[in-house]
Fold this sequence. Notes:
The complex is a heterotrimer. Chain A has one domain (2-80, 126-169): Up-down Bundle (Four Helix Bundle (Hemerythrin (Met), subunit A)). Chain A is 75% helix and 0% strand. Chain A contains seven helices and no strands. Chain A has helices at 2-23, 27-47, 51-76, 88-110, 129-138, 141-162, 166-169. Chain A is globular and about 50 Å long. Chain B has three helices and no strands. In chain B, α1 (13-33) packs antiparallel against α2 (37-62) and α2 (37-62) packs antiparallel against α3. Chain B has a domain at 35-99: Helix Hairpins (Orthogonal Bundle). Chain B starts with 12 loop residues before the first helix and ends in a 13-residue tail after the last helix. Chain B is an all-alpha fold. Chain C has a domain at 255-452. Chain C has helices spanning 2-17, 23-46, 61-85, 92-111, 115-133, 140-171, 176-185, 191-208, 216-223, 226-251, 258-278, 284-304, 310-335, 348-351, 353-367, 373-385, 390-415, 428-451. The mean pLDDT of chain C is 88. Chain C is mostly helical. In chain C, α13 packs antiparallel against α15 (353-367) and α13 (310-335) packs antiparallel against α16 (373-385). Classes of the chains: A mainly alpha, B mainly alpha, C mainly alpha.
Amino acid sequence: MSIDLIIYLLGGLTIGSALMVIISKHPVRSVLYLILTFFLISANYIMLNAQFVAIVNIIVYAGAIMVLFLFVLMLLNLSKENEPKTSLLVKVSALISGSLLLLVLLAVFKDASFLSIENEVSNPNHGLVQNLGKLLFTKYVLPFEVSSILFIAAMVGAVLLAKRDKNIIE
Amino acid sequence: MILSTVFEAGISIQYYVILSAILFSIGVIGVLIRKNAIVLLMCIELMLNAANLLLVAFSSYFEQSDGQVFVFFIMVVAAAEATVGLSILIMAYRNIRTVDVSLFNQLKD
Amino acid sequence: MEAIIILFSTGIVSLFIAMTRKPILVLLTALIGVTVTAIVMSINWYTPMQWVKYDGIETDYFTIIYGATATLFSFLFILIGYSKFSKEVYHTGDYIAILIFSLCGALCLFSFTDLFMFFIGLEILSIPMYVMAGSNKKNLLSSEAAMKYFFTGSFATGVLLFGIACVYGALGTFQLKEMSEAIAAMKNSSALLQVGMILILAGFLFKVGAVPFHFWGPDVYSGSPNVVTGFMATVVKLAAFCGFLRLFQLGFNGLDGFFVEILIAVSVLTMFVGNLSALRQTKLKRLIAYSSITHVGYALICLLVKNEHTPAYLWTYFFAYGFSIVALITVSMIVNDENDDIDRYKAFARTNPFAGFVMILALLSLAGVPPLVGFFGKYLVFSSAIEQYPVLIIIALINSGIAIYYYLKVILTAISKDDNAEKSTVSPLHAIVLSISMFGLILGGFVTFWVN
């Protein structure tokens, strides 16, 4: 009973703070709610026995990516006053189309049957670093290496775009 | 350290599927509703996180680690995407002095 | 695998060489690297190299053909773009390296065997393109194009990922082979799998710009620098199509039932929307964008036909299409007009006979006039599907007819008389590219026969 309660509470809080991300008028507040959402999602991961992913989620998302967001927000110096307004029509139509998507997904998942556990390699420690590391560096070592191309391309690209050119400064 | 899973405690996988479907839809609504480019990017991150949650839930349900390894790759891509996206934003801000996506309307038929 | 390593090293080396601030050296490095990649890939055709064996990637004949084609087009685009890249000495290396990194992603998409490589490859393909769309930094339109491309692209990624998560939930694996086995063993269809496949399909249609997810295409194409537009229309589209074809054929055992109906509807809509919007365009790059939407509609027919030749037909189609785009982009670089109005091409064929000739060939090939390579692409695709989907092919033929109108309009503008027209200068690199694409357009048909 108690674990049920915790899990439902966690789910409700996650949804609530995700909603606050899109409702908040002030972008900085949105960022803070998104960080809260990431923490709550990490809590969900811990409940799902995925401890390492939970830690990495906090470090990478809440730690690195969201700091980058906050930094850019501060750099551009956006405030509540120059926050763009959305017209009511757009809001209503977006809400309707989003809810329709949700409705379809829920309707499908409501009676969906799920694959039962039949893996011979099932392992209760599957969320721990040891197993993930073993998998990452044996079976999935190629995508791991190839993702370095992605990073270097993103890095070069980000510097290329965000750097002020010399002749502009002069 | 062996924890009994939430699925043994009587929570069905359906709960997590629905939770992530709701988070995904909130992300989609956010993308449609907001006009601030930075918040738009945040809503896309929310969509990616919904996919992450679903993957972790299934990985825990199947008791295999593959799904969680995939989550790492999603994080890799999310980080790269956020970097590039924010730098595009800064560049556009220098040119147009706004982050309101509805003002990016110079290109049309 | 070797090809990806060589390309990646080429990218890194050209980044370092760019520090010498001598653009010509960067160009040479990049061209040598890309050529070596193509050679290594062709050696694989005869004697498969297996010095490293990894999970996640598998080289077959189609990998090599597609890879060689993408490499060839990238080679041509680096050549075309050099005149523009070298203007900014500080960034020449960056531009060329980013294009090469994007090509690495394309190569991953030609050979993946699990969803990990598929997803990473797709992102390596697209993220550099978001950057390149905005590479004209001080241009407002270029920033806008980058912004639009980025947001639609990453939204599509989000949708695609949710789809992949659903598919994982339904099948419990990421390996294409195990996925197809799991689907074959499934007694009744799983709702989760269906939702996952629909979301993946939606992500795919977003990435290739099919109707109803086409709205970003024309804006991004017309706002981006010319070379980038060309690269997006050829290499990126080829890679995205090949990647998803692999995924659907190897992973999902081909699409059937409900998905066929969706794809037919999307294909028909894509052809009509692309064509009818192209009719009233006054700018060349927007015309290219809408005509590329139409061509996506034709190429989608390939996904509907289930036989072992489909990858070859799809390849032929994009091979043919690519040469036309290379030629048209080169011509637009030669004219080099900010507004890119079609009127600006008035009397172009008279002042620059050779470039004008290749431009006309390219447009005729896009329209599918027989001896040119574009005809073979269309012929193979249409003839492969005519038995299964006769009505669809008739609609496609009607659309080819409509398309001839706006291609002819451009041709007539190019050969019309105008006394005030000035001769544009054709740089040697552009002349080389034009001759290569001329050979491709005229003789490409034989190559496709040889490959098929």
